[in-house]
Design a protein that fits this description.
The complex is a heterodimer of chains A (82) and B (430). Chain A contains two helices and four strands; from the N terminus they run E-H-E-H-E-E. Chain A has helices spanning 24-32, 51-59; strands at 13-16, 41-46, 63-68, 74-79. A four-stranded mixed beta sheet of chain A has the order 1-2-4-3, with helices on one face. Chain B is globular, with a radius of gyration of 21 Å. Chain B has a single domain (10-173, 182-338, 369-412), classed as Cytochrome c oxidase-like, subunit I domain (Cytochrome C Oxidase, Chain A), CATH 1.20.210. The longest helix of chain B has 37 residues, at 315-351. Helix content of chain B is 77%, strand content 0%. Chain B starts with 17 loop residues before the first helix and ends in a 10-residue tail after the last helix. Chain B has helices spanning 18-24, 26-41, 44-47, 52-82, 91-112, 116-142, 148-176, 185-217, 224-246, 251-278, 287-311, 315-351, 369-392, 395-420. Chain B has 430 residues and is an all-alpha fold. Classes of the chains: A alpha+beta (82), B mainly alpha (430). At the A-B interface, helix 1, helix 2 and strand 3 of A face helix 8 and helix 12 of B.
Chain lengths: 82, 430
């Protein structure tokens, strides 16, 4: 939940859904979750900060960090606990 | 840079689906009822704003169609856009009941003449307003977001309060048979209608459009200075008109004070949004967007009709203005919004917890495009026929227009119900 991005290395897996209308970014990110192995990370780039998606990700017990970029787009870092 | 507070993400802040959905479902009922009225009454209510049937039709449109959807939309949008829950959200069910019965009684009162139904309708609508405005006002006052959307929504809600008080004063004064000093019925009616359309409806539509259109259609963002200017113009009218009415100002003064909001929502807003939508990043065919385009094209026509009604006073211009504003600009925008937002809410509440676990349909499959197209087409045909009927005085066109309106209500209602019938998968727990 912090904005300490400088301390984070970008994950190998990046899902860029900034060019999709709502709720397709939401759908694409949730559909990618089953392929995320324990300990693996995913960075999702979204058109804006996805408040409702974050609710759903929390319900699934995932580790999350999220922030808004200067251009108004969003980023969600997701890690499945080992 | 992170979200403003963890509490804003709590699921229990979002209202249950039943709250916005119950308000949204009133819209097709109001459209169909207006269609039945026109089928029965013919062109009479379209010949002058002073006919009993025209008051009934206007309030079916402003309260039954526009007001119902906007109340439901505010309950839904405040937590999502402003990040604050509406307290005592279950009170919304009481608001829904009082609102529905109040609109029904008021419309019946217009048709049957001044009497008990007016008082019952006014009392129920007054109760609905209090029960709506207190919790919503509290939620908006607590919200941390400082954006043109929040300010615009705030102006709209204050506008609703002023419009409601003016409307209730008409009911009370008719009952009392006493007129306060400085009360000019025509001027107050213009203030009531003008603030209702330009500030309550216009303020909310513009505020919501800054958020919803980029989100759902990937339209380009509107410059903050332009959003601020539109919002400020709406605020100027909201401030000026009640003061002018309170001080016994003339019709000319009230109209001049309504002009900033009118120019902002019927000229500046479409001039900003049409290019932004045309420049959207993905140009996928979407019939809900067609309805939005229709609304944005009706906006300048509404403004021109208002100017014509002032320059060349005629009941026909007045009726054309109300038709364009309520059924065209406001009605089409909300028709489009309903066909996009209700599938989204059903998908979010019932299907999204299952994504990645079992196969669920994507949101765009919940309401097929051809079904939306039929509803929007019937809506456009009804508007065109009723404008022609108002212009020509044709009884036949008025009744055919009424039939088209009834079909619009049935198609929109069937679309919304079909979406609400989508259920969550039942085989495994989410």
């Amino acid at each position: 939940m912090t904005d300490d991005r400088s301390a984070q290395q970008l994950p190998e897996r990046v899902l860029d859904v900034r060019d999709l209308p709502a709720p397709e970014p939401f759908e694409a990110i949730l559909e990618a979750l089953p392929t995320l192995n324990p300990g693996e990370e995913l960075l999702a780039r979204t058109p804006r900060l996805p408040r409702l998606l974050i609710q759903r990700l929390r319900e699934r017990g995932l580790e999350l960090r999220f922030w808004e970029e200067p251009d108004g787009t969003g980023a969600v870092w997701i890690r499945r606990p080992a | 840079m992170s979200l403003p507070g963890d509490a804003s993400l709590s699921l229990d802040q979002a209202p249950p689906l039943s709250i916005p959905a119950s308000f949204f479902l009133l819209a097709p009922v109001a459209i169909a009822a207006a269609g039945v009225l026109l089928l029965v009454l013919g062109v009479d209510p379209l010949e002058s704003g002073g006919r009993p049937g025209s008051g009934a039709l206007t309030h079916l449109g402003t309260l039954g169609l526009l007001g119902s959807v906007m109340l439901g939309a505010l309950y839904q949008m405040i937590p999502v856009v402003l990040g604050g829950a509406v307290p005592a959200i279950r009170v919304a069910h009481a608001v829904h009941a009082a609102w529905t019965l109040g609109v029904t009684a008021l419309v019946a009162g217009f048709l049957t003449g001044p009497g008990g139904l007016w008082g019952i309708g006014g009392s129920l609508l007054g109760a609905a307003l209090v029960l709506f405005l207190v919790p919503v006002g509290l939620a908006m006052a607590r919200a941390s977001a400082q954006t043109a959307t929040r300010v615009g929504m705030g102006f709209a809600v204050v506008g609703l309060l002023v419009v409601g008080l003016l409307g209730l004063s008409f009911v009370a004064l008719r009952g009392a048979g006493w007129l306060p000093p400085g009360y000019h019925p025509t001027t107050w009616r213009i203030g009531h209608l003008g603030l209702g359309l330009a500030v309550w409806v216009g303020g909310l539509l513009t505020a919501v459009s800054w958020q919803v259109l980029p989100m759902f259609y990937l339209s380009t963002e509107i410059r903050p200075a332009a959003r601020t200017a539109v919002t400020a113009a709406v605020g100027l009218s909201l401030l000026g008109v009640p003061i002018a009415l309170g001080l016994g100002g003339s019709i000319e003064l009230v109209l001049a004070l309504l002009a900033p909001a009118g120019v902002a929502i019927w000229a500046a807003h479409p001039a900003l949004m049409i290019p932004a939508l045309r420049a959207r990043r993905r140009k996928r065919q979407d019939e809900s967007l067609t309805a939005w385009f229709g609304a944005l094209v009706c906006a300048p026509a509404t403004g021109l009709c208002a100017v014509a009604a002032i320059a060349w006073p005629s009941p026909r211009w007045d009726v054309a203005f109300v038709l364009l504003a309520v059924l065209g600009w406001g009605g089409l925008a909300l028709h489009g919004m309903l066909c996009r937002v209700l599938p989204f809410l059903v998908w979010f509440h019932r299907l999204s917890p299952w994504i990645g676990k079992v196969k669920v349909p994507p949101m765009r499959k919940l309401l097929p495009q051809d079904r939306i197209r039929r509803g929007v087409l019937a809506h456009g045909v009804a508007l065109g026929l009723l404008l022609l009927a108002a212009g020509t005085g044709s009884d036949f066109l008025a009744r055919i227009g009424g039939l088209a309106l009834l079909v619009t209500g049935v198609l929109l209602g069937a679309n919304l119900v079909s979406v609400l019938r989508v259920r969550a998968p039942e085989s495994v727990s989410p």
